Amino acid sequence: MTHIDAGADLDPVHPTAAPVAGRARGLTAAEVAGRVARGEVNDVPVRSSRSLVEIVRANVFTRFNAIIGVLWLIMLFVAPIQDSLFGFVILANTGIGIVQEWRAKKTLDSLAVIGEARPTVRRDGVATVVGTSEIVLGDLIEIGPGDKIVVDGACVETDGLEIDESLLTGEADPVVKHPGDPVMSGSFVVAGGGAFTATKVGREAYAAQLAEEASRFTLVHSELRSGISTILKYVTWMMIPTAIGLVISQLVVKENAFKDSVARTVGGIVPMVPEGLVLLTSVAFAIGVIRLGRKQCLVQELPAIEGLARVDTVCLDKTGTLTEGGMDVAGLHPLNGSDEAYVRKVLGALGESDPRPNASLKAVIDAYPAGEDWRCTEALPFSSARKYSGARFSEGDGQSSAWLLGAPDVLLPDDDPALTETERLNEEGLRVLLLARVTRDLDDPEVARDARPTALVVLEQRLRPDAADTLRYFDEQNVRAKVISGDNAVSVGAVAGKLGLTGEVVDARHLPAERDAMGEALDGATVFGRVTPQQKRDMVGALQSRGHTVAMTGDGVNDVLALKDADIGVSMGSGSEATRAVAQIVLLDNSFATLPSVVAEGRRVIGNITRVATLFLVKTVYSVLLAVLVVCWQVEYPFLPRHLTLLSTLTIGVPAFFLALAPNKERAKPHFVRRVMRYAIPGGVLAALATFATYLIARHSYTGEGALEAETSAATLTLFLISLWVLAIIARPYTWWRLGLVAAMGGAFLLVLVVPWLQHFFALRLVGTTMPWTAVAIAAGSAAALEYLWRWVDRRFPA
User: Fold this and answer.
1) Is 317 a catalytic residue?
2) What angle do CA 197, 201, 203 make, to 5 degrees?
3) Residues whose CB is less than 8 angstroms from the CB of residue 167 and which lie 6 or more positions away in sequence, other chains included
4) Per-residue pLDDT reduced to its tens digit, 32-47
5) What pLDDT is attached to residue 794?
6) Which residue among the candidates 164, 312, 317, 559 is catalytic per the annotation?
């Protein structure tokens, strides 16, 4: 609560405003320059991305690159260049990964500059908007509702200032601040305004210390990445003993030429490494960021793309999401015989009393200009929790009066006749504010008791033109929409109805507080009105407790707590600094219609990576099992590195790149590791057994010089055909380009078999007719078995 001198200048400060006498002037230009020279600036690193050096390091210095790199160097010395092709593939893959992530970094950084907080600092008595990184120690920073506290400081001026520190302290109730009180970075203003002096900047600020390690793409859980890490861990443990056994088998047990033994040993180890899987995941995420960036969507944490694809419930704040931020006064209904001209004067004075008006008050200001003879002596800023604002005035004739402007159903008792008119207007989708005269002090907790209703201010909300289509999209995708608003429930329900959203409308004041009961109520209804900020948070938690993956959209300070607790928080670019800071996704163009693009991008990434992961891991499984069978049978390993490079390129590398970037609208499902391995293990085992069977039959069919090359060619044919069939299954449902992709890969392999110099280059030559057709028959039988096996797995082990 702030008492204001009746003669004080109440005009809000603008960047071009002249200095106002009697208040702190802030630093001078010379003082700012001196502090910049001493390094006393807010140099917190940009959270959106890592540096180029970090990108290169992350893509180059990986566990599997180290393994492949050593094997590649060995092969360069002991075998022809065609057996070293796998190394060049790794170089290309790493280069692609670096380029794509660098492109994503530039996109993120450019969008982050657009969406970053722009605080107002007072220097030489004039308010100026600056970038967060331009704040210096000792700067005087002005704040108002929705502003995020960007550095630590101490209050100098307060005007009913209430700050929410829950994101830092866990305490939900806003803290009233007075001059001299400390403020912490990371908190935000919920009501009132004021100014504070920066006492700690940069990495010394409280929030910066908390966020230093946690802010770079790590705040959102990524099942995809953690699942791939789990798979790679097990692959590593499988590789070690298998590779040792293979080395001993090829170098010691078999009396082959040393170089040939080394080549076949490396040929057995290299395909065990699913080296392209991590790369493809990174590339898919990076391209997703670039695609969304072109639509003015800032993804502040990369796994958020994945998270939104898993969402099954989206909670929408009405104001700013379904409706545009602005409103228009549609009518004024005086009550109890009030004089309309006098009411207009009161509304004009109320508009002038708040230097940072919300959307409702802006509409009042536009409709009712302030008179010159009224002065505000006491102000009560608007708060989402209490749902009203107020002021006391000294009128031109020497009279004094106090007024409240807010929600009728909060300010009036249930039996007041004014609520009947309010209800009728709400049913038309109109928003209604009550102007009431009060006799109590504005800082009295029961200030609204015995309030005298004076007029109803009717506001018309502007529906977003794209909201109906977006809601229809969510319905088609089996994503349930819940409208959660602080406005009157009937009014919110009417707005939702205009947009085609049907379902039960509930007044949140009647919701049970107990989490399970609240969750049950939330599952049964669609629209909720009169929701407090704390209730929004509780509602998100209640939905999550019932197994829902929840996205929350919003643009006001009353949405911050819920945005932070939701699985995915989505903020409008025009929203408050606090909401943009805690959201994982910021729609910079304020277009609700962008949200389906984000969902679609996430589904594309996850669905496609799940597909291609199966391709990679089938290869890993059959490579490990083939090595085990070779060790047990004490025979030469059937393949040289060039054979497996060819197979990997045609059945995994090239197709996976296209499949990973293809459209995919299927909602992401949980249990990534289980879903992938239930296909990869039976597929890999079947491929290994069929290939080894062909190899053993070929060993009995061919004798003499060139027998090993013929045996290898027959085994390669079987393995390729089975791998191609795995690709054909993964590529379903078919489109023209998917069928073309599978056919092109088959055609490329056929080209290798018929062109003499390619036959020589890849050491592939089919000898005779019996064994090649036997290899084809074994592959055909295995393909049929694979179809049956995967369908059985689907029934027996549903994901």
Assistant:
1) yes
2) 160
3) 186, 187, 188, 560, 561, 564, 582
4) 999 999 888 887 655 5
5) 83
6) 317
